[in-house]
């Protein structure tokens, strides 16, 4: 059972941020890309916004040889762009520490145990520790085992929590093994599986939009919605992630987590409250209602693709197989589109089209809700084609939403046109929304698991994808698309009527 955090619920309607409890963050993989680009900036911004406790420190851990001073210098380089106030920077650097060692060497953890005890005493953190696993996925179970061996998983009137970065395994089996290993040493309430998409303001706003307004829910069902389309596209190629991506492919990289999480938020039933257990129960209920895939329906409902070289803005961009560290005959997919159905009363017969890919036309994360035609058109004149109403939720860029409705165009009596009611966060709210990692790290320090993925949700999403992974392992069903387009033309066959939005 998840515990109810009274502090979260009592303040959930408040605009004031909750300050983190006294604690430390211990980052494994502190020399890596994620730590430099996301974690250190996020922790620093929380520090600068005074949302961290005065009783707080950061301890970086990795194999790379560095001492505290080297790690502070590296940290300084990262945060200097974020703040011009030397005093704040120096105050932050003072609470930064580093320990190097081998992840599978018990001596590292003995040293860590002593160092953490010393720093916990020095900073009076009450022994509260948040361990962040920013390491390659195959290292996660080694670290948890070793932490367990030295007792750093033991909560005694304090907390020991672990944030785990995706991917959570590479298939159902490996994900189950990782989960079993975690549960040997930790309770589920100690485990925070992070999907940074869930920390984005506009993703969180899906729930607010749906459940804090009366006007959307009555039409949020099969009676009024024709189809829902979720697009998460990247204009860039695979970059430096080829080593990981070649084995993973896009289905594992995007669908198991971000895409299915977006789907649950847009389709789940209203939770009884904002309490983490209520929200996460509804998500799991929804995931369980997704129609399973099997050998027979996979080809009809899924399309996979890989980008080939193309000229974009007078520049030739390489195809996936020409990228560094990618096999010349690689069959890894860089694009997936799928038609999903949710077999419950609300969504009966409504297709959910999900697509995601690399090197697509533009970088975009968007949910398009396409409404049905009016039941009877009084404008049924040959030349009047009534466009369907649509509500577009823009997760990025241009965070906000747009409602497209029909309106009379001045002039001719029968002339209709589509009107766009546009709302952009940046035009309305006078501050930059916090980065997803800021939100999520703060939540983990407070003990709010709402935006983190629960064990059962993760398992169900792997179960859903498992038949697809297995079929694609055996059969080469790859289609090709030119870099800079919206993906393989075969993806349009998923539609009986209609088309992708945007095309
Ligand atoms: P890196 O490849 O930069 O690795 C992080 C650190 O882990 C490295 O600095 C290195 O530190 C150590 N490491 C790397 N390879 C090995 C190895 N084979 N054996 C042991 N240690 C190794 O990863 P990222 O920082 O990019 O990502 C960390 C985690 O976050 C991964 O699980 C990734 O999937 C996830 N993630 C990353 C994102 C990103 O934007 N980078 C986005 C979303 C998730 P040292 O050699 O000093 O020990």
State the secondary-structure class.
alpha/beta
What kind of sheet is the major sheet? 9 strands, mixed
Strand content: 15-25%
**Helical proportion?**
25-40%
Mean pLDDT: 93
* Overall morphology: globular
- Calculate the terminal CA-CA distance, rounded to whole Å: 45 Å
* DSSP summary, beta strand count: 17
Low-pLDDT sequence parts: 6-12
Number of separate helices: 14
Bound molecules: NADPH dihydro-nicotinamide-adenine-dinucleotide phosphate
Side-by-side strand order of the widest sheet:
16-15-14-13-7-12-11-8-17
Taking all Cα atoms into account, the compactness measure Rg is: 24 Å
Binding site for substrate: 196, 200, 234, 253, 358, 363
Family: Belongs to the glucose-6-phosphate dehydrogenase family.
GO cellular component, one term: cytosol
Active site: 258
Describe the structure in brief:
This protein is of the alpha/beta class and 503 residues long. The protein contains 14 helices and 17 strands.
Structure description:
It is a single chain. With 503 residues, the chain is of the alpha/beta class. 35% of the residues lie in helices and 21% in strands. The chain contains 14 helices and 17 strands. The chain has a nine-stranded mixed sheet. Helix 7 (172-185) links the parallel strand 5 (160-165) and strand 6. The longest helix is centred in the middle third of the chain and has 26 residues, at 242-267. The model is unreliable at 6-12 (pLDDT under 50). The structure holds NADPH dihydro-nicotinamide-adenine-dinucleotide phosphate. One of its GO terms (cellular component) is cytosol.
